[in-house]
Structures are given as structure tokens and as C-alpha cells.
Write a structure and sequence with these properties.
Blueprint (H helix, E strand, L loop, with lengths): L1 H17 L2 H6 L5 H14 L4 H25 L3 H8 L2 H33 L5 H9 L1 H8 L9 H35 L4 H6 L6 H4 L1 H14 L2 H10 L5 H4 L4 E2 L4 E4 L2 E5 L5 E5 H46 L12 H11 L2 H34 L5 H22 L1 H19 L1 H11 L6 E2 L3 E2 L19 E2 L4 H27 L2
Length: 505
């Protein structure tokens, strides 16, 4: 018994070092865009769209696991992999589409936070709420620095601590959202039988055009494209220690014996490398990263799944199954707040606004970082991170501020819904490249020895065996089949979305 407890405690202790990136991704699955779609779907169709939330979360886990594999094995994020392996014209097209997606994401987060501030402080003008929300970028600039200026251990340790503090801050915001919705669920009158039936597929989802449209909106708001870029980037932070220990040579290595190579280094020095030991060390650490990264992801997205379900359940129980069987359709987050205030009282309405504020603030932090990753990855920008973050934030703030000043509440709500449509349309342009890269052998390889100067691996020479054979971790057949099916479904749903919007369905 004691040995089992020791193994469990040891496992949890190691897992604790990897917890963080999953929650930074999870905030995108409970952002204001999810609130808008879940609230509307729950108020109009009851619990039946819980099945769509469940399926969307499973798809998200599958795709995000591919991003963990991409970042851990190849050392590229999704954007930089596009710049490395795609022709320039394809890379440029994908960059423009990704930038549109990040703008749509950031607009939704900014609008959600501004709405939350207005709900908590009714006298605060909406434009002021947008401006206050924009200030969260200062937190990112102060606390998040994933690019240490030097390779010294002290700088890297200090940077790692700041990144860890930032991850904990985001996790606390996510936890606050979850606590708020536990309180909302306690206020709500829930019929358990109807709730569990909602996790089963129903034909109305596919035969009712309005219900299907809401389902597509939930998918677009849940499986967000910017998270694929961000996760493939931040997961590399857990790999720096063991990746940096790989030998780095200047010229081709000379064979000493079948299991040992001598690598020429700078200043006419050399280093002997035990190839089998090095391969075991690298592969063991890589597998640890893949395993614990997946556990972190599953745990975080299960929490996000609970929050998404809670939002829809609160909307269903209070608005679809309303008092005296009076159904109330939620048009926007303002009306949802007003209805909760009417049916459940002011405390529930305040908790709703606080949860929306925490969700908006946490998701807008990660959206800003995703914008930086996209800009630097696709374009290869070497400017300081804070410059890229400010540029990304300004692009989102300007349209949100215009809507707040010109059209007010109605304009913000329209932009919030429209941003989710843009995300849904952009999603396949992130998913398909992700599937291609994780199935590509020349991308999904981990070299045991890298060049010292520019850290680019030398090509493996099969005949002479002068360079150690890299570790290949590409998608298997089953993964490829599942990925192709998912991408086909996403593309089909987006075609339906475009056609439905064009025909005014």
C-alpha cells in the first residue's frame, strides 16, 4: 500500500511541473464567445446541445494533442512550421487568415470584458470598459517573458518563474469562473433526467436549421483556431531543459565506433557522444513531455467542458424551462444578465457578471500571446515581444472601440456573434496544416545532434551513418484517418455556414 502511495505521490509531483499550458489553452474554451453561443443555444433549444459541447470538447482534445506533439517533437509552433515547410504564397494566405481569426478572437474577449464591466458598474460607459480591458496587455508585458535574452542559467530560471506565475494567475481566473458557475447552478432548478438526455444525439440537431446553426456556432466558439497556434508554442517551454543538452557541432561528426561519435566544436575542440545513451535520454524526456502534456490538457479541458455545460444548463433551466413554462430567448449577454436578475435575483446576476469578467480577462491575455505567436511565426519577426503584443492588441481595440462609441450595446453584441462566425470559417485553415505537419516525417523528427551556430539539424546520412539517426514521431494510420474525418466534417460545416448566411437561413 505504501509503495502505491509513493508512486502516486511521485507521479503527481512530476505532473505538477507540467500543469499550466493546458489551462492557458482552456480559457479559450470558456471565453465570451462561448458564453454568447451557449446562452443562446440553451435558451432556445434546452439541453439538447449538450451533445454538441461534448463532441466539440473531444475534438478539441484530439487536435490540441496534435499541437503538443508538433511543439515537443519538431520544435516548431504551427505558424513557424508553415513558414518552414510551405511555399511563401501559401504561408502568406494562411497568415492573413490566421490574423483575421486572432482579430476576431481578441474582439470577442475585449467585448466580453467590457460588457462585464458595464454590468457590474452600469454608470461606466462601454468605451471606457473597452479601454480598461485593453490595459490587461500591460500584465502580459510585465509578467510573461518566454524569450530570455541570454542563455545563462540565472536568466532562464528567472524567466521560467515569471512564466509560471503568469500561468498560475490565469489558472486562478479560470477557477474563479468555475466557482461562479457552481453558484449559478445552485440557484437554478435543474431536471436531472432531461439534463442527461441532452448528452445524447437527437435528430432535431440535424433537421432543425436553427438548431444546427447554433450547433455550428458552438463548435466555432469551442474549437478555436488561435489555441492551436498558441499551444504548439507554449508547450515548448517544458522541453527547453532536455533539448538544450543535445550536442551541438560545427562540422560533420567523425565516426569513432558504431555507438560513439566525435563532434568537432568551436576552437578546435571535440566532444565524444554515447549515441545509444543520448537516444534513450532524449526519447525518455520526449515521451514524458507528451504524456504529462496530454494529462494536463485533458484535465484542463474537462474543467472547461464543465463550465461550458454549466453555462448552457443555466440558460436552459432558467430560460427554456422558465417559470410558468414561459420561454425566454437570450439575444445577448445583457439580456441574459437581466433575465437572471429577474428570475434568480441580484446575487445571481452579480455572480454572472463577475464570472464573465474573469473569463474575458483570462482569455484576452492568452489571445494577445497567440497574436504574438502568429505574427512572429508566419513572418519571422525578430522584434521584441512587447512590440508584437501591442500591435496585435491595437488591431482588436480599434474596431471594438468604434462599435462601442457609435452603435453601443447593440453594436457590441453584433460584433460578438460575428466574431464567432469568422472563427468557424477560419478553423479548417488551421486544422488542415496541423494534420499535414504532424504526418510529415521531415517535420516530426527530433535530431539528436544540432549545429552549434544556428541550431539547425544536419541531414541524416543513411549510408555513411555519420550523423545519428533522428527520432521520428509522426501520426499513425488511425490518427490520420480520424484527422481526415474531422477536417472533412469541419469543412462541410463551414460550407453550410457560408451557404446559410448567404441564403439568410
Amino acid at each position: 500500500m505504501s509503495s502505491i502511495l509513493f508512486k502516486v505521490s511521485s507521479y503527481l509531483r512530476v505532473l505538477g511541473k507540467y500543469i499550466g499550458p493546458g489551462f492557458m489553452i482552456a480559457v479559450g474554451y470558456l471565453d465570451p464567445g462561448n458564453w454568447a453561443t451557449d446562452m443562446q443555444g440553451g435558451s432556445e433549444y434546452g439541453y439538447r446541445l449538450l451533445f454538441i459541447i461534448l463532441m466539440s470538447n473531444l475534438v478539441a482534445i484530439f487536435l490540441q494533442n496534435l499541437t503538443i506533439r508538433l511543439g515537443t517533437v519538431s520544435g516548431y509552433d504551427l505558424a513557424s512550421a508553415s513558414r518552414r515547410f510551405f511555399p511563401k504564397w501559401i504561408n502568406l494566405i494562411l497568415y492573413v487568415l490566421a490574423e483575421i481569426g486572432i482579430i476576431a478572437t481578441d474582439i470577442a474577449e475585449v467585448i466580453g470584458s467590457a460588457i462585464a464591466l458595464n454590468l457590474l458598474f452600469p454608470k461606466l460607459p462601454l468605451p471606457a470598459g473597452v479601454a480598461i480591458t485593453a490595459a490587461d496587455v500591460l500584465l502580459v508585458l510585465m509578467f510573461y517573458n518566454e524569450e530570455p535574452e541570454s542563455e545563462g542559467s540565472q536568466t532562464e530560471s528567472s524567466s521560467a518563474r515569471l512564466v509560471r506565475y503568469f500561468e498560475i494567475f490565469v489558472m486562478l481566473l479560470v477557477l474563479a469562473v468555475g466557482v461562479c458557475f457552481v453558484i449559478e447552478l445552485a440557484y437554478s432548478d435543474i431536471v436531472a433526467v432531461d439534463l442527461f438526455k441532452g448528452f445524447l444525439p437527437s435528430k432535431e440537431i440535424f433537421t432543425d436549421a436553427g438548431c444546427l446553426y447554433s450547433a455550428i456556432g458552438i463548435i466555432g466558439a469551442t474549437v478555436m483556431p488561435h489555441n492551436l497556434y498558441l499551444h504548439s508554442f507554449i508547450t515548448q517551454g517544458r522541453c527547453q531543459e532536455w533539448r538544450s543538452r543535445r550536442p551541438r557541432g560545427d562540422i560533420k561528426p567523425l565516426v569513432v565506433d558504431p555507438d560513439t561519435i566525435s563532434i568537432s566544436l568551436e576552437r578546435d575542440t571535440s566532444q565524444k557522444v554515447d549515441v545509444p545513451y543520448l537516444a534513450r535520454y532524449i526519447e525518455s524526456n520526449m515521451k514524458n513531455n507528451l504524456h504529462y502534456g496530454l494529462v494536463d490538457l485533458v484535465f484542463a479541458l474537462c474543467f472547461a467542458f464543465f463550465v461550458n455545460c454549466a453555462i448552457l444548463i443555466v440558460a436552459s433551466s432558467n430560460f427554456f424551462y422558465g417559470p410558468n413554462t414561459q420561454r425566454q430567448s437570450v439575444q445577448d449577454l445583457f439580456s441574459a444578465h437581466d433575465l437572471l436578475n429577474t428570475y434568480l435575483g441580484p446575487p445571481a446576476a452579480i455572480v454572472f457578471a463577475l464570472a464573465l469578467l474573469c473569463a474575458g480577462q483570462s482569455s484576452t491575455l492568452t489571445a494577445t500571446l497567440a497574436g504574438q505567436v502568429i505574427m512572429s511565426g508566419f513572418l519571422g519577426m525578430s522584434s521584441r515581444p512587447w512590440v508584437r503584443r501591442i500591435l496585435t492588441r491595437l488591431v482588436a481595440i480599434v474596431p471594438a472601440m468604434v462599435a462601442a462609441c457609435v452603435t453601443g450595446r447593440e453594436g457590441l453584441s453584433t460584433m460578438l456573434v460575428g466574431s464567432q462566425v469568422a472563427l468557424s470559417i477560419q478553423l479548417p485553415f488551421a486544422v488542415v496544416p496541423l494534420i499535414i505537419f504532424t504526418s510529415m516525417e521531415r517535420c516530426m523528427k527530433l535530431d539528436l545532434v544540432v549545429e552549434h551556430k544556428d541550431l539547425q539539424p544536419r541531414p541524416y546520412q543513411e549510408k555513411s551513418h555519420k550523423w545519428p539517426k533522428p527520432i521520428i514521431v509522426k501520426n499513425g494510420l488511425i490518427t490520420k484517418i480520424v484527422a481526415i474525418i474531422l477536417s472533412t466534417i469541419l469543412i462541410g460545416l463551414n460550407i453550410y455556414m457560408v451557404v446559410a448566411l448567404g441564403l439568410g437561413i
